[in-house]
Structure formats: C-alpha cells, structure tokens
Amino acid sequence: MQWDWQAVTWGAVALLLFAAEALAPGAFMLWLGIAAAAVFVMVLAMPGLSVLVQITAFVILSFVSIQVYRTWFRGRGHERQSDRPDLNRRGQQLVGWVGPLERAIVDGRGRVKIGDAFYDVAGPDMPVGTVVRVVFIDGMTLRVEPAHG
Fold first, then answer.
1. At what angle do helices 5-23 and 51-68 cross, to 10 degrees?
2. Residue 117: alpha-carbon gap to chain centroid
3. I need a surface site. Which of 27, 68, 129, 149 has the fewest CB within 10 A?
4. Cα-flanking dihedrals φ and ψ of residue 107, to 5°?
5. How far is it, in rounded angstroms, from Cα 110 to Cα 64?
6. Does 33 score more than 80 pLDDT?
7. What class has domain 90-146?
8. pLDDT (tens digit, 9 = 90+) per residue, 51-84?
9. Cα–Cα distance between 9 and 19 in angstroms, integer?
C-alpha cells in the first residue's frame, strides 16, 4: 500500500486541531479541524490535487465553518436569558443598596461600607451616617442619593 502523504498530513493537522480544542476549549479550533478533515477527505477522494488547491480549500472551508458557528450555534446561545444577569457584574448588583455613609460626602466624594468592602461614592454633600441609596455605577464609584423613606 502506498501512503498519500498529503492526505496523512491533512489528517494529522485535523487531529492536532481537535486536540488543541480539547486542551483549550473555545469552539474555534474545532471548526478549523473540521475544515482540515474535509480537505483530508477531498485529497483521498481526488488524488493529485495541487497543494495550492488544498490550501485554498482549507482556507475557504475554515472561513465557512467559522461563519456557520458564529451565525448558527453561537447566535442561539445569546437568546437564552440568565436568571442572574448581574452575577459577574458586582457593581450592578449594588444598584439599589441602601445604607449609611461611612465617611461624609464632602465636595461630592465620600465612602460607604458594604459587607466587608469599602466603596467610594459620589453625590451631594451629606454628613456621616446619612442613609443613602446607590442609584448608578460610574466605573469604580457608586453614585448615591439620600434614601427617603
């Protein structure tokens, strides 16, 4: 039996890309591996294809497979709504928090303690102990207003 080294090469490339996907999952290498596997089958089915045609086919199939992933598979994942949309957005979880000022707001700046963490706040000048409500997050600063009622 005569080995078709071009087919073996494409098979090895496909396996390496699949292995890379398994080691660092992210669904990107998988699609390149599928393209390499398709070129592998193409080379087996049509021996004598030039290397230029093989590489061109790989590039085109890679582009097409990644576009299929982006539009078909990845797009569907964005339709699901989380039951905890602010899970990894700590600042957004603080909007609505009500509590006393730890340090008075002077010249628009003060501080509150939430849990075991201190946060810089911005708002109208108020004395220590005034109960405030977080209304907005501006970078690392919590915007507050007096909590009435």
1. 30
2. 27
3. 149
4. 55, 35
5. 54
6. yes
7. mainly beta
8. 999 999 999 999 998 888 888 776 555 555 666 6
9. 15
**Mean pLDDT taken over the chain:** 84
The answer to whether 121 and 132 have CB atoms below 8 angstroms apart is yes
Phi-psi category of 50—alpha, beta or left, where left has phi over 0 and alpha has psi -120 to 50?
A: beta
Tokens of 79: 């339709």
HEC letters along the chain: CCCCHHHHHHHHHHHHHHHHHHHCCCCCHHHHHHHHHHHHHHHHHCCCCCHHHHHHHHHHHHHHHHHHHHHHHHHHHCCCCCCCCCCCCHHHHCCCCEEEEEEEEECCEEEEEECCEEEEEECCCECCCCEEEEEEEECCEEEEEECCC
Rounded to 5 degrees, what are φ and ψ at 29? -65, -30
| 95 has a pLDDT exceeding 80 | yes
Q: How far is CA 84 from CA 75, 92, 96, 103, 114, in A?
A: 20, 11, 16, 31, 20
pLDDT at site 65: 87
For the chain, the domains span 5-77, 90-146
**Nearest-10 crossing angle of helices 29-45, 5-23:** 160
